[in-house]
Amino acid sequence: MTKYGVVVGSTRKNSYSEGVAKAIVAGLPEGSEVNYLNIADLPLYNQDLDANSPAVYDEFRAAVQAQDAFIFVTPEHNRNIPAALKNALDVASRPWGQNSWAGKPALVASQSISGISGVLAHHSLRQTLVFLDMPTMQQPELYIGNTMQLADEEGNITNEGTKEFLAGAGKSFSEFAAKFVD
Description:
Elements: E1 3-8, H1 16-25, E2 33-37, H2 55-65, E3 69-74, H3 83-92, E4 106-111, H4 119-131, E5 142-144, H5 147-150, H6 160-178
């Protein structure tokens, strides 16, 4: 069975991004292994540490390597991805030549409490994933806007149409990922 890593760009408790991720995961095949990777506690990437990486870097890199495919859900911070998400991408792509993300299929979703839906963060993340050699599902595009109206206080998506759409995207992603996973 495919192992899906889920990376939520928001480190906030009860984040809407996590709610979107859960709604996507609901569409994965029954019995799928799903692992939410914690990015909140990673120290900032520093190339000086490549020769003697902190244990938390090594553990995160191993967690990335253990997954077959990735679901990324990001909010938009100042028209880009959050620093914690960019840091996680950097940590697991280094040291140079040891990219743990390479070849793993990815799904990208963005969300925002505004109508802009995190579109700029979405495309910034896609650009980074291209460089990291991650084949990324192109359709459907997952720009989720006005999330405050679609979710409860815990960040869970409650709007039935949105839940159905996101679960459908999860199903589509499982079919896409199967093309790349042994």
